[in-house]
Amino acid sequence: MEYCIELEGVTKSFTKIKALDELSFKVPCGESFALLGPNGAGKSTTLRILSGLLKPDSGKVMVCNSTPDLAGDCIGYLPEDALPFLNLTVKENLEYIALLRGVRDYKSRIVELASFLHLEDLDKPAGSLSRGNRQKLAIAMTLIHRPRVLLLDEPLNYLDLPTQEEVIKYLRGLNSTMLVSTHIMSIAERLTSYVIIINKGRVIWEGRMDDLKKLSKNEERLEEVVARIMGGKI
How far is Cα 177 from Cα 131, in angstroms, rounded to an integer? Predict the structure, then answer.
């Protein structure tokens, strides 16, 4: 089996706070994983390390069989509350990332993504967009170079329900490997097939989404099952 994401014994501390504590997991190529955990569990830190924006203190990190700093063209990273370049237009934002990533057909790619995400005024400054449209632009900037690996931190923030459904359908139709951090279980359930739950920088549960559902007692909601796992009651 080929793995597109690999972490082995990854540790990261900020002053006296250990964000990741010997964190280890693997994501097979082409699979979609939800990364769940309470606030401060290390989810965003994990995605930042995988994206190459943050270096671990120790441990092994591989994305597309390379270290993250050499795998940039393979990775599409969407941070939580992502902001485009506010002084550039929608089109200029997309052109900048496309040229940076070496996208040859960037003109048609921009038209395709703008149409899919209903970004109608490409000449509008990003700073004048609504928060929802800024999120759409950030998603387009993440996808424009057709990355093999998507690292998505709360990707559907600020989007209305119809747009959420369109984005979920689009992402599910890609062949990309996905690692999605979210607090919203309904999004995790619709967007991913596997789950990794971390707490205090360590994996505490890992398995198929269907197996997570089977842990439900007395018609518990999935959020309640995850809360029991986080609380050490499973």
Answer: 27
DSSP 38-53: -TTSSHHHHHHHHHTS
| Token pair for 60 | 């092994």
Beta strands in 69-193 (DSSP E): 75-78, 149-153, 177-181
Residue 88 has pLDDT above 80, yes or no: yes
- CATH architecture of structural domain 3-82+149-230: 3-Layer(aba) Sandwich (3.40)
Domain segments of the chain as ranges: 3-82+149-230
Specify the pLDDT at position 232.
Answer: 84
Exposure string over 58-92, b if 16+ CB within 10 A, otherwise e: ebebbbbeeebeebbbbbbbbbeebebeeebbbbb
> Comparing C-alpha atoms, which of 174, 185, 165, 120 is closest to residue 145?
174
pLDDT of residue 175: 87
What strands lie across the sheet with 58-63, from one edge to the other? 17-28, 3-14, 58-63
pLDDT at 223: 93
Give the position of tokens 């009651």: 233
pLDDT at 53: 96
State the pLDDT at residue 234.
76
Q: What's the average model confidence in pLDDT over 22-49?
A: 97
Look up the pTM and report it.
Answer: 0.96
Length of the chain equals 234
Amino acid identity, residue 71?
A
Percent of the chain with pLDDT over 70: 100
3-state helix, strand, coil in the chain (%, to 5): 35, 30, 35
